[in-house]
Amino acid sequence: MNGAAVSATLAYWVHDLDPVAFRFPEGWPLSGVHWYGLSYAAGFLVAALLLAHWRRRALAPVRDAVDESALITAIMVGVVLGGRLGHVLLYARAEFLADPLMLFRVWQGGMASHGGFLGVLLAGAWFARTRRVPFLAVGDLVCALAPAGILFGRLANFVNAELVGRTSTVPWAVIFPREGPEPRHPSQLYEAIGEGFLPLLWMWWRYPKRLPPGQVAGEFLLLYAVARFVSEWFRSPDDGYILGMTAGQFWTLPLALGGLYLILRARAGAKDVAR
Prior knowledge:
This protein is mainly α. It has one domain (21-274). Helix content is 62%, strand content 6%. The protein has helices at residues 3-9, 35-56, 65-90, 93-98, 113-131, 135-159, 187-206, 215-231, 247-274; strands at residues 13-14, 20-23, 32-34, 174-175, 183-184, 241-242, 245-246. A 3-stranded mixed beta sheet has the order 1-4-5, with no helix packed on it. Helix 2 (35-56) packs antiparallel against helix 6, helix 6 (135-159) runs parallel beside helix 8 (215-231) and helix 7 (187-206) runs antiparallel to helix 8. The protein is globular, with a radius of gyration of 20 Å.
């Protein structure tokens, strides 16, 4: 039985989720509150709760509630600015040139995780410098908090019916009407699990172990890179190819190399201390 025949015998779920969680009355400046915005709020809320929990256990490199709120604020700014600018520079240059104001319509979606990582890196460096705490210690903490935001962000991608998967006849495939009648992999959910949920569990287990500085950050970057690289095989390559890889896979390679470097550096430092 060929793929078309299999597709015809299965009743695939048709995506009909509303990207707006609840709508405001007519005449209001905004149409309503989008799930995309709520996903960011949920990610930051979970990060704040984890930060408070680890600070109570004397694991987080912050000294008081002021520094705690400053770190969360820095992460928020880094994620939003870095993610949006990364999306425009890497994937939406033509759209930006045609409509520059799209840069500010973040509630409609369009955030690049690679740009978000760079934004958070710069925010963490700023926080470490101004608070006079070790950069790697801050990096470990930020990377331990990051998976929650990625998890909710990928779920929002699914609700928005964006970043859809390749066509498929697997029983759990989904039809995204804007992309045509063909069933597709729900790749956003694969990414939510691989890039968000599993790393979150790993960070919850690893961060309290007082590992060498940089170890946790390296492990997160490597886990994320592997999950993203694999999930790209199920995701529609809307952004084209670079050197035979999808754009997402190509821009993930520096994260993998950075993760490996931090892990090796942390282990080498631990051996030096043991001597």
